[in-house]
Amino acid sequence: MLRNYRTAFYNGQMGERSSRTPSERIGPEVLSAALEILDDEGPDGFTVRAIALRANVAPMAIYNHFDGLNGVLEALWIEGFEVFNEALTFHTNDATDDLHNAALGYRKFALEHPGLYTVMFLGRFRNFLPSSAAIHVAYQSFQTLVSNVERCQKTGWFKDEPALDAAQVIWSACHGYVSLELLGVNFAANPDETFQLLLSTLRDGFS
Predict the structure, then answer these.
(1) What number of other Cβ atoms are within 10 A of residue 93's Cβ?
(2) Distance (Å, rounded) from C-alpha 80 to C-alpha 138?
(3) CA–CA separation, 13 vs 106, rounded Å?
């Protein structure tokens, strides 16, 4: 989960923070503790003091290594979108099947990584604004979806729609479904089957 945090955090993606000396212990433990809090308690329990207590480090260590709470959020944002992009990436000889699997991968990522998804999409952290470098990492995930749509257009799908617009509709539909699911307001008798219904409805609508 946290395999790429050093690259993202210390090699220029987070501005001046990249000049700090990396720690082999504090960084991963802090980020793991932060994710545990998000998964267990949600954003309401997400404080420097709570993270430090769970990671068994001094609060000042978080300021020294991450410049505070926003630095932790930025590291999680970058890691989250890198893993998310992997979940959306399928490239076989069947473009339409790849797009379907990307949509399934979207939901699978959200359900398996609710803490990361909260940081990335649910926007419940006061004063946190990702850097331009972090936003670029996020955009790569959307571009992966756009590329899938462009491949489908070559087979006759989405032929009347700009690829970017079609990708935005698909993204929005998936995000709405899984966000409600994470918030505990998905009342479908079978959420898996209902998500498949959502995808087939999108497919039929675009066709």
Answers:
(1) 6
(2) 9
(3) 24
Residues 195, 141 within the same domain: yes
Q: Are 175 and 80 members of one domain?
A: yes
Are 37 and 126 within one domain?
no
Look up residue 81 and give its amino acid.
Answer: F
Question: Residues 72, 54: contact at Cβ < 8 Å?
Answer: no
Q: Which of 155, 17, 35 is nearest to 97 (CA)?
A: 155
Q: Quote the Cα angle for 64-67-54, to 5°.
A: 70
How many Cβ atoms from other residues are within 10 Å of residue 104's Cβ? 18
**Residue 99 sits in which domain range?**
73-206
Cβ neighbours of residue 99 closer than 8 Å, sequence gap 6 or more: 90, 148, 149, 151, 152, 170
* Tens-place pLDDT, residues 58-109: 999 999 999 999 999 999 999 999 999 999 999 999 999 999 999 999 999 9
Cβ(95)–Cβ(76) below 8 Å:
no
**Cα dihedral: 55, 60, 64, 69 (round 10):** 70
